[in-house]
Specification:
Elements lengths: L2 E3 L15 E2 L5 H7 L7 H17 L13 H10 E2 L4 E7 L5 E7 L10 E10 L2 E5 L3 E2 L17 E2 L2 H14 L33 E4 L9 H11 L12 E5 L6 H8 L2 E5 L5 H7 L8 H9 L10 E7 L7 H10 L5 E7 L13 H13 L30 H8 L1
The structure holds S-adenosyl-L-homocysteine (SAH) and iron/sulfur cluster (SF4).
The site of S-adenosyl-L-homocysteine (SAH) has 16 residues, from strand 11 and strand 13.
Length: 408
C-alpha cells in the first residue's frame, strides 16, 4: 500500500526575509566569523559558535528563542540577521516496504526571487540500520542511459546547507533529535542496536549515502563541507565509515575525496568494457576504465577493512553475461572491493529490462567464487519511484532571459 501525504502543503514557515543569512552549512570558524555581523568580538563569537553548533546539530533547533544559554538580546540579534530554516516538505510518500521518500523544496539563498528548486531524499529502514539517501544536485549534467535522474537537466548545485538540510529535516521528521517523536504512520523506523547487543546507536538514521539526485563530485566543495559537518563529533556525529559517496567516475576528485573527506567510496561501474561503458555511463569517454581503476587502486585509506563498493546495475542482455562477470573479477584484481549488484529499476520511458533472478544469481556466483562479496541490492521503494536511479523532480533550469526578468 502506498500512502501519499501532503504533510506541509502550505509552507511550514513563511519564506524567510531575503536579508537573513543561513547559518546551516557554515564550518565552525566561518560561523564564528559570521557572528561578527551582530557585533560579537572574537572570543565571544567563538564561544557562541560552539553553543550554536550544539543547538543546530545535536538538538536540531530551528528557533533562536529556544537557545537557553544565550542571552535575550543576543538571541534577538541572531534572529534578526540569520536563519536556521530547513527545506519545506512538499510531499512524503511511504512505500509498502516501509521506505519513505520526501520531496523537499529549497529557495535559492543567494537569489530569493528565483523560483524554489525541489529534490528527492529517501529513507531506507532495515532491521539493524536506517540509511538516508541524500541528493547533491537538482538534476544531473550526466546522462547515464539507464538513470531517471539523468533525464533531468542540471538546474543547479545544492549548497552545503541544503545538503545538510535534507539530513536535518529527515532527522526531525523521524523523531531523531532529543525529545522528538517517531512517526506513527505505517512507515518503518527501526531502533538499531550496537553490534554487541548494547543500546549502541539507536538513532533512526545511522547511515548516509550520497546516492540521490546528482553527481556529488561535480559539486565537490559543497559536498565536502556538508559531509565534514555531518561527521563532526560535536554535532551530527555520523561516523565516516557510515557515510558512502557514490560517483559515476569523476576521476580527478576521487583522490581528494579520500584525503580531504575520508568517507567510504562507491563507484558506479556498470560495464567492464569501454565501448559499453561509453554508452551506459558516458563520463567514461572522458575518464575511461583504466584511469578510473587506477584512481581506485590509489584511493587514500583503502584497505581490506575499508573496501570500495563497485555498483553494477543488472541489465538484461546488455552487461549480465558470464563473460562480463569474469572480466569484472579480472579488472578488480588487487583492489579491496565489494561488488553491489543492483537489479535495474524501471522508470517511465526507460529502455532497459532487469536481468532475470537466475541470471543475477549466476553472475553473483562467479564474482563470489572469485573471492568478492557480491550482495544483490534488494530494490526498495520501487512502488513510489524511490529505488536507485528512479529519483527526479519537476524543477527546470531557467534561461538567462527568464532569470534576468525575474531578478529585475
Ligand atoms: N551520480 C552518482 C550518485 C547516484 S547513486 C552515481 O552515479 O554514482 C545511484 C546509483 O544507482 C548509481 O550507481 C547509479 O548508477 C544507479 N542507478 C541509476 N539508475 C538506475 C536504475 N534505473 N536502476 C538501478 N540502479 C540505477
Ligand atoms: Fe547522474 Fe548518477 Fe544518474 Fe549518472 S547515474 S545520470 S551520474 S545521477
Amino acid at each position: 500500500m502506498t500512502i501519499a501525504l501532503d504533510l506541509y502543503a502550505t509552507p511550514r514557515a513563511s519564506a524567510p526575509a531575503p536579508a537573513k543569512k543561513p547559518l546551516i552549512g557554515l564550518g565552525r570558524s566561518a560561523l564564528a566569523e559570521t557572528l561578527a555581523d551582530i557585533g560579537l568580538d572574537g572570543r565571544e563569537a567563538k564561544m557562541r559558535a560552539g553553543q550554536l553548533w550544539n543547538w543546530m546539530y545535536v538538538n536540531g533547533l530551528t528557533d533562536f528563542e529556544r537557545m537557553s544559554n544565550i542571552g535575550k538580546a543576543t538571541r534577538a540579534a541572531l534572529n534578526d540577521k540569520f536563519r536556521l530554516d530547513r527545506p519545506e516538505i512538499v510531499s512524503e510518500q511511504i512505500s509498502s516496504d516501509g521506505t519513505r521518500k520526501w520531496l523537499f523544496r529549497f529557495r535559492d539563498p543567494a537569489n530569493p526571487l528565483l523560483p524554489p528548486v525541489e529534490v528527492e531524499t529517501v529513507y531506507i529502514p532495515e532491521s539493524d540500520r536506517g540509511t538516508l539517501c541524500v541528493s547533491s544536485q537538482v538534476g544531473c549534467t550526466l546522462t547515464c542511459s539507464f538513470c531517471h535522474t539523468g533525464t533531468q537537466k542540471l538546474v543547479r548545485n545544492l549548497t552545503a546547507g541544503e545538503i545538510l538540510g535534507q539530513v536535518l529535516m529527515a532527522r526531525e521528521r523521524l523523531g531523531d533529535f532529543p525529545g522528538g517523536q517517531r512517526p506513527d504512520d505505517g512507515g518503518l523506523v527501526p531502533a538499531p542496536r550496537g553490534s554487541n547487543g548494547s543500546e549502541g546507536d539507536s538513532r533512526a538514521i545511522t547511515n548516509v549515502v550520497m546516492m540521490g539526485m546528482g553527481e556529488p563530485l561535480y559539486n565537490y566543495d559543497n559536498v565536502k563541507q556538508a559531509l565534514l559537518i555531518a561527521s563532526d563529533e560535536a554535532g551530527l556525529s555520523l561516523s565516516k565509515r557510515r557515510i558512502t559517496l557514490s560517483t559515476s567516475g569523476v576521476v580527478p576528485f576521487i583522490e581528494p575525496t579520500g584525503r580531504e573527506i575520508g568517507v567510504m567510496l562507491a563507484i558506479s561501474l556498470h560495464a567492464v568494457r569501454d565501448d559499453l561503458r561509453d554508452v551506459l555511463v558516458p563520463i567514461n569517454k572522458k575518464w575511461p576504465l583504466k584511469d578510473l581503476l587506477e584512481a581506485c587502486r590509489t584511493y587514500p585509506g583503502l584497505s581490506n577493512a575499508r573496501r570500495i563498493t563497485f555498483e553494477y546495475v543488472m541489465l538484461r542482455g546488455i552487461n549480465d553475461s558470464d563473460a562480463d562477470a569474469r572480466e569484472l573479477v579480472r579488472l578488480l584484481a588487487n583492489i579491496p572491493a565489494k561488488i553491489n549488484l543492483i537489479p535495474f529499476n524501471p522508470w517511465p520511458g526507460s529502455n532497459y529490462e532487469c536481468s532475470s533472478s537466475a541470471r543475477i544469481e549466476q553472475f553473483a556466483d562467479i564474482v563470489n567464487k572469485a573471492g568478492y562479496a557480491s550482495p544483490v541490492r534488494t530494490p526498495r521503494g520501487r512502488d513510489i519511484l524511490a529505488a536507485c536511479g528512479q529519483l527526479k523532480s519537476e524543477s527546470e533550469r531557467l534561461s538567462k532571459r527568464e532569470r534576468d526578468a525575474l531578478m529585475a
